[in-house]
Amino acid sequence: MIAYLDEKGLIRPRAIVDGWVRVERVSRRNLSFRVTTALGPHYFIKQGLGVERAATVAREAAFLHAIDAAPDAKRLQRVLPRVRDWDEERHILIFDLVPGARSLDEHHHRTGRWSSALAHHAALALRRLHRWQPASTGSGIEAESRPPWVLSIDRPEQAFLNRVSGGSLDVIKIAQSAGPLLAEFDALRIGWQPGSIIHADVKWDNFVVHPTGKAHAPRLTLVDCEMVQLGDPLWDVGSYLSQYLDTWISSIPASENSPLSQARAASVPLQRLQPAIQQFWKSYAGGNGSESADGGAALRLMVRYAAARLVQTAIEAESLRPVASNTSVLRLQVAENMLQRPGEAASSLFGLTQ
After folding, report:
1. SS in 3 state form for 269-297?
2. DSSP state for residue 130 in the 8-state scheme
3. What is the dihedral of CA 175, 179, 185, 187, to 10 degrees?
4. What are the E-state strand segments in the chain?
5. Which end of the chain is more exposed for a tag (fewer CB within 10 A), N or C?
6. If you compute the radius of gyration of the chain from its CA atoms, what whole number of angstroms results?
7. What is the model's pTM?
């Protein structure tokens, strides 16, 4: 990696000779590194290995290039990462890295606080993305408008099943045995409306908090845009808000009998999370017309998407386990309840009213 950066002219020879360069491997979908040095800029580098991952990295590069070239996307550029270099032949993307920056997920768990100010800025970032429309082709998203893969969990591809763990298979089997859940997934898949550009992989890990020294003026960047496509913007919104529910569920003590009976013993109760949830929805929905006459319908659809994202989280959370955990069983139970009673879930779980 150091030799590659030297070849690109992105690192000073003195920093290499004096041992002032640190390269840290980051475990993600792609081959990724953080590179920091005492001299000059720092970088985050990702390389797409294999046909599928090379294609998604190329899509991210094309999308970010389209944003940089768009005169009407200045506000959106502020919440997306800056590309330092794109090596199309080797499928390598190089981003500027801000020292001290960390993911929103790490920030929440380090501080033990769920900031309404950060929720507000995350909502604004997604709102800007969903409102932007490319002026021409070449953004890397025109051919993609598929519903989220989890909505087809009753008919997974064999290649997908071949690479998942025993724990993830357990979750899939439980989901496939839940008739009401699958019926709701069918309805969501059939009703999928690809009307806006969406991130399609929204989670707290894909927001980066930058140190500003001002608690009241945080700066967030939305990263990892490999899955960007045309889709329903409420999928991104539901995905973000589902992270609060997962934080609550993960803090509930394990129980062999009725997991939900232990909900009152959660170390992170919903009451601590709901102010940030409410701020996020207010900041996002207020600027997108979702508080109009059909705002109730938008809210219920968002809740159903959040439930689907909880199922996806359960599958992903068990990727290294031989059997499913009680926590993921609880994720599925909460998701099914949300799908069956989205209006009630909006109020009781999210603290949102129609």
Report:
1. CHHHHHHHHHHHHHHHHCCCCCCCCCHHH
2. H
3. 180
4. 21-27, 31-37, 42-47, 83-87, 92-97, 102-103, 196-198, 207-210, 219-222, 229-231
5. C
6. 21
7. 0.92
